[in-house]
Design goal:
Strand 6, helix 7 and strand 7 form a beta-alpha-beta unit. The protein is α/β, with parallel strands linked by helices. The longest helix is centred in the N-terminal third of the chain and has 38 residues.
Length: about 400
């Protein structure tokens, strides 16, 4: 019996040895085939993909910013900082303010209706850490040490390309430029900047909805006024505008966005190579426009000018006949797109009352603000001095 057991055990050992030998032989043959294929320039069958390795390969992606800079950013962006002219505003339009982990001083320290997004998001952002001074110069005025501490995934900045490169060198955090111009009637540069911003934060659907809304407003304004011949239009002037600071009556715009929107006859367009500039007051007398629009926020400057030189103002027909109206500033650290649209509609109300008889500014303004920013802050605008109505110079 013992012999049988030993025989059986010995047989099992031999059987297992035989199987192992076959496996080793098969493995050696497989290795030989791989080496042979490699030697001949071939390749072995690809290994099964590892999901973790695949995700790691997708961690970074490249976006091209508004200056044409190619910037490598994380595949999934969750924490952002917005710096400079217009960047926080675009975050508001795209409804991604909740991604911001820091805020500039000028939005943190004060409530203001001069920037359309501030009244809506003031409470949400005022307690965030300060990450920069703010403003529209395009220079790098960020707080590098604070940014390093906060470690956002991406910085979205309305800086010059040189300033963006400088900030990246200081922090090592990707800086994507989203600067747009405050020219024309919602310049194409705004569309490009919005699309870059949306690509970074994954808000493309909301971006296209906003741009479509703007296009629809522009098309409606055009359709209401396109068939009016110049011979049937009043001439118009806008003064006391804000550009690189506040200006008195002579501060004006050629190619003024709201006037472009309603095909108005802007006397200042005579300076074809200008955008915003300071006009000689004698030139305004020569133009003698039918209608004048002034920024209500700069009326203290205009009234000081009136007290010094009332004869100039009294020589203008529009002043004598009471055809002076408000035109709230739409520029403050970039263009408030919502305000620019409202200003265009109001210009239409004043210049073509029959074509805009159905438009009331509180309703129209509220609709624009609610879509662009998620809240109707028209009443806050008026309380803050940005209102629509008539003006009496000298009061």
């Amino acid at each position: 019996m013992l012999r049988a057991i030993c025989y059986t055990h010995s047989h099992h050992i031999q059987e297992r040895y035989g199987k192992m030998k076959k496996k080793i032989t098969a493995l050696m043959l497989a290795l030989a085939m791989i080496f042979a294929l490699a030697a001949c320039g071939g390749s072995a069958a690809p290994a099964q993909e590892n999901p973790a390795q695949e995700n790691a390969a997708q961690e970074m992606r490249t976006v091209t910013d508004t200056w044409g800079r190619e910037v490598e950013i994380p595949y999934g962006v969750e924490r952002i900082v917005c710096l400079g002219s217009g960047a926080p505003r675009m975050a508001a339009y795209l409804d991604v303010v909740g991604m911001m982990v820091g805020v500039e001083d000028h939005d943190k320290d004060s409530y203001t209706v001069l920037r359309d997004y501030n009244p809506v998001y003031r409470d949400e952002i005022k307690d965030l850490p300060a990450v920069g001074a703010g403003g529209g110069s395009g220079a790098n005025n960020a707080y590098a040490e604070e940014l390093i501490t906060l470690a956002p995934d991406v910085i979205l900045a309305s800086f010059s390309a040189e300033a963006a490169d400088e900030l990246y060198g200081q922090t090592g955090i990707p800086v994507v430029c989203v600067r747009y111009l405050s020219r024309g009637f919602v310049d194409e540069s705004f569309y490009g900047a919005m699309r870059v911003f949306a690509e970074v934060v994954g808000a493309q659907e909301r971006c296209e909805a906003v741009l479509t809304f703007i296009d629809e407003c522009k098309q409606e304004l055009k359709s209401r006024t396109a068939d009016i011949p110049d011979s049937g239009k009043q001439t118009v002037y806008t003064g006391a505008v804000t550009f690189s600071g506040r200006h008195g009556f002579g501060g004006t715009y050629a190619h003024f966005g709201p006037f472009i929107g309603v095909n108005a006859l802007n006397v200042a367009d005579e300076a074809e190579d200008q955008n915003y500039y300071e006009v000689d007051l004698e030139k305004v007398i020569e133009w003698d426009p039918d209608v004048i629009f002034l920024d209500p926020g700069n009326m203290d400057l205009v009234n000081d000018e009136y007290n010094t030189n009332p004869g100039f103002f009294d020589s203008l027909r529009a002043v004598r006949e009471g055809r002076v109206y408000t035109m709230p500033s739409f520029n403050n650290c970039g263009t408030n797109i919502s305000y620019a649209l409202m200003d265009a509609y109001y210009a239409g109300v004043v210049l073509y009352p029959e074509r805009f008889a159905d438009v009331t500014m509180p309703e129209l303004g509220g609709r624009i603000l609610a879509f662009m920013l998620g809240k109707d802050t028209f009443a806050e605008m008026e309380e803050g001095g940005l209102y629509y109505g008539t003006l009496t110079i000298g009061e």
